[in-house]
Every structure is written in C-alpha cells, then in structure tokens.
Amino acid sequence: MLTCLLPWGSCSPWQVVVAVTEHGRRPEVPPDAELLAPPLEPAAKACYLALMRRCWATDPAARPSFGEAASALQCAAARTRCRHGPRCCRARC
Q1: Does residue 76 contact residue 47 with C-beta atoms inside 8 Å?
Q2: Residue-wise pLDDT tens for the chain (93 aa)?
Q3: Are 34 and 78 a contacting pair, CB within 8 Å?
C-alpha cells in the first residue's frame, strides 16, 4: 500500500511460503524516500506500520480482526497529509 509494489516480487509463491513459515521472515519496510507521495505525517506512518506488524503476527490470535484493521486504516488515512486537508480519507489524492 505504501509503495504500490508487490512484496516478495522476485520470489515464487513457494519461496514466500518457506521464507515466512520456516524462517519467520516478513517484507522489509522501505525507507521514506521510496514511499508514495504525498509524504506521510509521522503519526500516519506509525499507524500504518503498527497495523502491518500486527497483521504479520505469527500467532493468529494476535492479528487484528477485519473491523480492527479497517478502523486502523481509517485512523491512518485521517492522519495522512494531502491536498484535501488533514482529515481526508481518500486512499490517494
């Protein structure tokens, strides 16, 4: 979502399965320079990163429900700076 790139883009599906299930790997979070414009406010970036990490939890019980994830995305979108103002909930402006 932050880069419009597929994570693990150069790997086959089975390579991803092995990396995640056997080695506990997760995609790397790219540096700010590789994120999409408009720049994210620190609070918005923190919301997105916290949600990503919760979704990547190895324990399924620790992962957010769909409703919790949707609420977290709305919260992050409200903190995203865009030309429509700080409370804009559009994914891209």
Answers
A1: yes
A2: 677 778 888 899 999 999 999 999 998 887 877 776 566 778 888 888 889 899 999 899 999 999 999 998 888 887 765 545 554 444 433
A3: no
Is the pTM for the entire model greater than 0.70? no
Q: How crowded is residue 82: how many other Cβ atoms within 10 Å of its Cβ?
A: 17
| Residues whose CB is less than 8 angstroms from the CB of residue 56 and which lie 6 or more positions away in sequence, other chains included | 26
Query: Given its phi and psi angles, is residue 4 left (phi above 0), alpha (psi -120 to 50 degrees) or beta?
Result: left
Check: CB of residue 67 under 8 Å from CB of residue 39: no
Contact by Cβ (8 Å): 19, 8: yes
